[in-house]
Amino acid sequence: MQRAVAVAADQRPIMRSDSSLFALTTVKRQSLFYALIFIGSGASLPYMPLWFASKGMSGAQIGLILALPLLLRAVTGPVLGVWAEKFPLFRSPMIRLAIAGGLAYGGLMLWPLAGEARFWLFVALWAIGYSCITSISPLLDVMTIQMSKREGFTYTGPRAVGSAAFIGANIAVGYGLNLLGVDLIIVWVVVLCFAAALAAWRILPRAPRHVEEGGGRAPAYLPQETGAQRVRTLLGNPVYVLLLAAMGCVQGAHAFYYGFSTILWKGQGLDGATCGYLWGAGVAAEILFLMFGFRLRHRFGSWTLLLAAAGLSVVRWLIMGFAPPVWGLWPLQTLHAFSFAACYLAGLDLVNRMAPKGSESLAQTLNAAWVTGVMMGLSTLASGPVYDALGGRGYWVMAGMSGVGLLIAAYLYRRQVMRP
């Protein structure tokens, strides 16, 4: 009888009986982990170029260091996605990726030993660390989506907490640099990697990838196809491929903004604080959309949301190319809610719906590999020459890129929504 009770207890719904360091709800667990991941990226994204420059790297060298792992995601994304799906628990690959990323980033601090070869040390270790850490986000997205379906919460809430943490990290590291110097950046990033690994182990739920309809844990679902076959199955779906192309154009168009908006604003006479507030306004708009945009998605559908994101992205970059005064920049920054957040939210839902059972993580990893990897990497490489040639009018090139995404999104909308 006791054995039967124990077996029954072992098959209860996965989340509420989870044994862990803290008695937290699933939403709080996911939110905390998102926050840790984004606190780390809040230092690495805006400030690591400054650290590389302090170690003697030129602008061209820094550009190559940053762009290489983005371009490599065409390979590392699918490989790590297939590898992650071999684990029965969602959190297991995230623990390993966070540790590997922390070790690689920590190796960057050994640069004095490399002497004149430090550039190649930076190239190799940054590529490894960045590939590991950025692969956590799509896996976490898949986990949060599945948990939201099992427990009935809105999966965009935890992601919004992550975006808020990103803003806080930007501000904190900015102040910290004044007190502790540029080496704070690499220490911050390394510590946050290992903190994320610890949080994945002690805070993230022991949630299995697959559960029985009654709520108990199901045997690990292992697709019959090999990893390469599952990649081919996904890429053999023309709607999936066109969806990635549309999102890649819309999201990749942000590369010029990420790289040169502050430089252009300073050229217009804005001070550093105003530039920071403008960046914060964009991320704040993103947070609000992630918190409440699911209502728009529920009402109008993800295909409509994608179409709106692409259209407003074109509008945003077209107007930015005219170098509007500061009073015009504030409303334009709120369009980040659509050009980024709406595209992201629609893409998460559509990619998840298209993925065959057992390939959800792989589908999202391919999505991240193409959209925030290859397309963002190519756009980043192109943005420098575009800026040199066109200055602020380079935004119009990004508007054209978003326009291509809009055309693809319109075709998909007509095919998926309006067809009889």
From TrEMBL:
Superkingdom: Bacteria
- Gene3D superfamilies, per database record: MFS general substrate transporter like domains (1.20.1250.20)
- Membrane-spanning residues where? 32-53, 59-83, 95-113, 119-140, 160-179, 185-204, 239-257, 277-296, 303-323, 329-350, 362-382, 394-413
- Coarse class of the primary localization is membrane
Entry's Pfam families?
MFS_1_like
What keyword terms does UniProt attach to this protein? Cell inner membrane, Cell membrane, Membrane, Transmembrane, Transmembrane helix, Transport
Occurrences of domain Major facilitator superfamily associated (ranges): 31-393
Q: Which GO terms describe its molecular function?
A: lactose binding; lactose:proton symporter activity
Membrane topology per the record? Multi-pass membrane protein
> Can you list the GO cellular component terms from the UniProt entry?
plasma membrane
Subcellular localization, per the record? Cell inner membrane
- The entry's protein name is Major facilitator superfamily MFS_1
Tell me the organism.
Answer: Asticcacaulis excentricus (strain ATCC 15261 / DSM 4724 / KCTC 12464 / NCIMB 9791 / VKM B-1370 / CB 48)
Q: What is the lineage of its organism?
A: Bacteria, Pseudomonadati, Pseudomonadota, Alphaproteobacteria, Caulobacterales
